[in-house]
Amino acid sequence: MSRIAWDVAVSKRTADRWPRRVFLKASELKVFETWGVPVRYVRKGWRTKLGNRCTFRGCGKPADEAAHVIPYQDGVLLYDLTPSYLMRWENLAASCSDHNEDLRWSESRIRKHIDKLRRTVGSRR
Ligand SMILES: [Zn+2]
């Protein structure tokens, strides 16, 4: 099995096992703090879902990548969000190579969004 095929197989298996919860349990957060946050790759075919053009205001260049509007690593370590939640389409936006970081939400927007999530999914983690 090629390295890429192996990575795909492992990430598929992991994705199936990982909970669809929004917030991490304290014990899960502890593991990520200790061992680091595992890398996850955006699924192939993201352009079909997110579009072919950069969504940063007024840009419109061909999209090269999918940007996280809530940064992946910070989402896990600072905001207690699960990797599964952070990989949902609603957290991704099509980006050219220049605007990946510009598509990130501000900290205040992220906090507002998380407050709303906590109200809607409840205080359970
Ligand atoms: Zn752009």
Q: For the record, give the distance between the C-alpha atoms at the N and C termini, rounded to a whole number.
A: 37 Å
Order of helices and strands: HHHEHHEH
Low-confidence stretches: none
Instruction: List how many beta strands DSSP finds.
Output: 2
The set of bound ligands, ions and cofactors reads: zinc ion
Number of helices: 6
Strand order of the largest sheet: 1-2
The major pleated sheet works out as: 2 strands, antiparallel
Structural domain tally: 1
Shape: globular
Please give the radius of gyration in angstroms.
15 Å
Tags for this model:
125 residues; binds zinc ion; 6 helices; mainly alpha; globular; 44% helix
Overview of the structural elements:
19% of the residues are buried. The chain starts with a helix and ends with a helix. It has 6 helices and 2 strands, in the order αααβααβα. The chain is globular, with a radius of gyration of 15 Å. The protein has one domain (20-121). The chain has helices at residues 3-17, 26-35, 46-50, 72-77, 83-86, 107-121; strands at 65-68, 92-95. Zinc ion (ZN) binds at residues 54, 56, 59, 61, 96, 98-99. The site of zinc ion (ZN) has 7 residues, from loops.
In short:
This protein has 125 residues and is mostly helical. 44% of the residues lie in helices and 6% in strands.
Secondary-structure map with pairings?
Blueprint: H1 3-17, H2 26-35, H3 46-50, E1 65-68, H4 72-77, H5 83-86, E2 92-95, H6 107-121
Residues 54, 56, 59, 61, 96, 98-99 line the site of zinc ion.
